[in-house]
Design goal:
Layout: E1 16-19, E2 26-29, E3 38-44, E4 52-58, E5 68-71, E6 74-76, E7 78-84, E8 88-98, E9 103-108, E10 111-112, E11 117-122, E12 129-138, E13 148-153, E14 169-178, E15 183-187, E16 193-194, E17 198-206, E18 213-218, E19 221-222, E20 226-231, E21 236-244, E22 253-259, E23 268-273, E24 276-286, E25 303-310, E26 315-318, E27 326-329, E28 335-340
Parallel strand pairs: 7-14, 16-24
Antiparallel strand pairs: 1-2, 3-4, 5-6, 5-8, 8-12, 9-10, 9-13, 11-12, 13-14, 15-17, 17-21, 18-19, 18-22, 20-21, 22-23, 24-25, 25-28, 26-27
Length: 341
């Protein structure tokens, strides 16, 4: 026995159809819209008996909207900061448009992070929820390489029987933390060098974020001819200096300073003192008390031989014209004056 079919196009449109031949007969909605949620009544009329009714309460689950991270009242994408070392702040994860209210969790890897507050509000117009979950973080050096993830999903108790509803959504942030350098060291400065050598010295620092600023100084004078390099993702900075050494560099103190360019704190330093080997430099003159134009035959005369050397000289030879030298062993220092009467 065939019956007449009718539907209100204004209610479900062409997304609905009724299958009377199935057991039991069924109403199909395809696709389902959020507005389809509600109570549906199925009435069956009989020729020889009273009508029967079946009431179905249809719940339509709306996946949560994409989570967003809020910091200091504004949305953040990618990295949070800059943050100072030791600074405490709060991050809020927000997801809007889900029904029922989404569950929000914060994760570091697979570790759940404690929440300091959770909030959910209902939009009476759309019937959807906005959920927020806030965590407290302490900016430390260890947090610099961390990634925090917010996960928004529909609570398990709201899921219907059958296959899981794959609707979890995530977003992740890293942290921009301003950190001072931890250490600065001058490399390759332990050995003595010979005059005329092209000396290469490397200053290395690590731990600064953003990368440290390095400077080479001799006294208060900034040294030129420095090559800079940044390694390990900005964690390591090197400054390589090259200098052609001469005897004036012997005993000179060189300083390398490292500082974070955005922090107003004193730089950290390392110093090295150069040792330069060079051949003796000899100077010969009359004694200081003698006048060259007043020396007469028979007068006593003496000469001063000034010697500058590194390492220290150990022998002085005096010659008069081509006579054999008179050797004088003179253990002393790198700078000395030797007299001959």
């Amino acid at each position: 026995m065939s019956g007449q079919r009718w539907k209100d196009e204004k209610v479900l449109g062409d997304r609905s159809y009724f299958i009377a031949s199935s057991d039991p007969p069924r109403l199909v909605l395809e696709p389902v819209h959020a507005s389809d949620q509600g109570v549906y009544t199925c009435r069956v009329d009989y020729s020889l008996s009273s009508s029967t009714y079946v009431i179905v309460n249809l719940t339509v689950i709306i996946p949560p909207g994409p989570p967003q991270v809020l910091w200091q009242g504004r949305s953040v994408v990618g990295a949070v900061g800059p943050l100072g070392d030791g600074e405490r702040t709060h991050l809020t994860c927000r997801s809007s448009g889900g029904r029922p209210s989404p569950v929000l969790t914060w994760l570091e890897g697979s570790r759940s992070l404690p929440l300091v507050s959770v909030n959910s509000t209902l939009d009476p117009v759309s019937g959807t929820f906005t959920a927020e979950a806030t965590i407290s973080i302490l900016a430390t050096r260890e947090l610099l390489d961390a990634s925090y993830t917010c996960h928004a999903y529909t609570p398990r108790h709201a899921r219907l029987e059958g296959p899981p509803i794959l609707q979890g959504r995530t977003t992740s942030v890293s942290f921009n933390i301003t950190l001072p350098p931890q250490n600065v060291k001058i490399l390759g400065s332990q050995s003595a060098v010979t005059e005329g050598t092209l000396l290469r010295l490397v200053c290395r620092t690590y731990g600064s974020h953003p990368p440290a600023r390095l400077q080479w100084l001799r006294g208060d004078t900034l040294l030129p001819d420095v090559t800079y390099a940044i390694e390990d993702g900005g964690n390591i900075t090197t400054a390589t200096m090259r200098v052609l050494v001469n005897r004036q560099h012997d005993g000179a103190t060189l300083t390398c300073t490292a500082a974070n360019p955005v922090l107003s704190v004193a730089p950290i330093t390392d110093t090295t003192t150069l040792t330069v080997y060079y051949a003796p430099v000899v100077g010969l003159s009359l004694g200081r008390s003698m006048k060259a134009d007043r020396i007469k035959e028979g007068d006593d005369a003496y000469f001063e031989c000034s010697i500058e050397a590194n390492p220290s000289f150990h022998r002085v030879d005096w010659r008069h014209k081509r006579e054999s030298p008179s050797a004088v062993t003179h253990p002393c220092c790198s700078h000395a004056s030797h007299k001959l009467l």
